[in-house]
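User: I'm putting together a small comparison set for a docking exercise, and I want a reference complex before I start. The sequence is below, and the ligand is nicotinamide-adenine-dinucleotide. Could you produce the 3D structure with the ligand included, as structure tokens?
Assistant: Of course. I'll restate your input first, then give the structure tokens for the complex.
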Amino acid sequence: MATGKYLRWKDAQGNEFRPVSISGTELLNDRLLNKSTGFSYEEREAFNLNGLLPPKPQTFEDQLKRAYQGFLSACSDIEQYLFLRALQDRNETLFYALLSRHVEEMTPIIYTPTVGKACQEFSHRYQKARGLYVTADNVDSMGEMARHFAGKEIKIIVVTDSQGILGLGDLGAGGMGIPIGKLSLYTLGAGIHPGHCLPVALDVGTDNQDLLNDPMYLGIPKKRMKGEAYKLFIDKFVQQTKLHFPKAVLQWEDFSKSNAFNNLAKYEDEIPSFNDDIQGTGAVVLAGIIGATKIKGETLGEQIFAVYGAGAGGVGVADQIFAGLLKEGVSHQAARDRIFILDSQGVVFDNREGLDEYKHRYAKPVSLASDWQLKEDNKADLSELIDNVAVTVLLGCSGVGGAFKENHVKKMLDYTQRPMVFPLSNPTSNCEALPEDIYRWSQGQAIVATGSPFDDVEYDGKPYRIGQGNNVFIFPAVGLATIVSGVKKITMEMFTTASFALADYVPQQDLDEGCVFPRIGELKAVSMHVAKAVLKQIQETDPDGCMCGKEIDQELAAHMWEPIYLPYRRV
Ligand SMILES: NC(=O)c1ccc[n+]([C@@H]2O[C@H](COP(=O)([O-])OP(=O)(O)OC[C@H]3O[C@@H](n4cnc5c(N)ncnc54)[C@H](O)[C@@H]3O)[C@@H](O)[C@H]2O)c1
Ligand SMILES: O=C(O)C[C@H](O)C(=O)O
Ligand SMILES: [Mn+2]
């Protein structure tokens, strides 16, 4: 639990209280300690708050009511986002209590899809400082910057360089919205104390010309740092992080594909870290596929997979499917043979010049297509792949809205009664197909999941709930398990375990109705279930290691933060 200013103590009678040493406006301006109108008469007296608040203290429930009214009176999704962010910056306890009472309604506001718009409009909507902006000019002084967070014991950092924000691309300094949103889900979903969370934006410039042309742009108005200079900068950032935030787990988020793979490979043995787009996405998608195979009464090894989009998400998904196939006993070669990846040039064949390193393992021999009818020799697009290969699982990680068409889904029905069609790209406008179209094209037979949230769809008089295949069902749990256990390396096996645990969580009734993911409203229960499974695996893999002799439930409970007010006593 939190140290320093945010301690929880018990007195001799067993009454819990928080020892607080600050007072007056300093206390009201501390987002982790502020109770605002919730300070009692006694606390107002003890903490020098007289005259600083409207006279009548309010109950927590009334504060929540007022906050919810404020949320509802905001007239658009972005206004609601700004309302919630402002509340978060004033009073985190109230913010998380409100969120936890309205998870389904508010997650799409603080997270995908609205957070995408907030990142795009960042410079025009900026309100208050949060997190760290690390640049080439200040990276060497991270020690000094870290002092602002002294006493908070940073345990989880989500960092982006903003080059691949969702499917929206390079958003420069505006990408900061993503670490802030992801970390809110760490607290909401995994109970991590908000004081332990640090959002970081690495501002290395931007290649987004619209931002560079915008006089209001708040980031460094220069082209992106690249090559050796970029690598050196990232290295400095990691070394400084290890030094000044020695307890932190590092989550890489929304880096462009090559940097995503390179940074992960370079540092995963050096600092407990993972790339959410690669590994979190891989695990969540495998879970959905496992659920769908249960619906179909088939195995993973009976499927043929087309992963549309061969970047961080797509190759991460391919890697995790590969691991799932191996776990089922399928051979390396047979597993590779069943996974096709496509990028902007179509199916990845081995005749490509300058093929990116991370795509090699799924490149298919071009001879495979020798008898395919192709518009262009040795090149196959998605239609041509599905015309020639009995694809049963179609996964979208391309960021290309509307890329999945009727002919793709219809053709899959020739190969299987229940095709899996997961358009996973975010935000909503980048989704490869609308769920209602997929149901129409497949006469309700497709098993559908999307990355962004969608309302239920009615087809042929029957309602369908659209499962959200989003890494939110994985990263808070894996991050929590890492923090709780103190493991030094986050492994592929931890993600595979998380994936099977998530699949296990989905009740048979949901599967019967064709839905392979839990409701977002269950995020906390899901995260606890998945984190437990990962902790168990850590314990079993290394019985003498960091989880030796520890009771998992107790360890988890000791890390849980609840958004409630404790009485304050002056120290
Ligand atoms: N649901 C989730 O949890 C989740 C997780 C991660 C990423 N995503 C989404 O996946 C998308 C991609 O993210 P990323 O981080 O992998 O990006 P990325 O840039 O690393 O990869 C995008 C890939 O799509 C390919 N592509 C682009 N245009 C294409 C086209 N016309 N046809 C086929 N392929 C094309 C690119 O070549 C690249 O291989 C984004 O929209 C993102 O929101 C979703
Ligand atoms: O942020 C999300 O909603 C999921 C994922 O990390 C993405 O980049 O799209
Ligand atoms: Mn992401």
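The chain has three domains: 4-58, 106-271, 279-470. The first strand starts at residue 9 and ends at 10.
User: Thanks, that's exactly what I needed.
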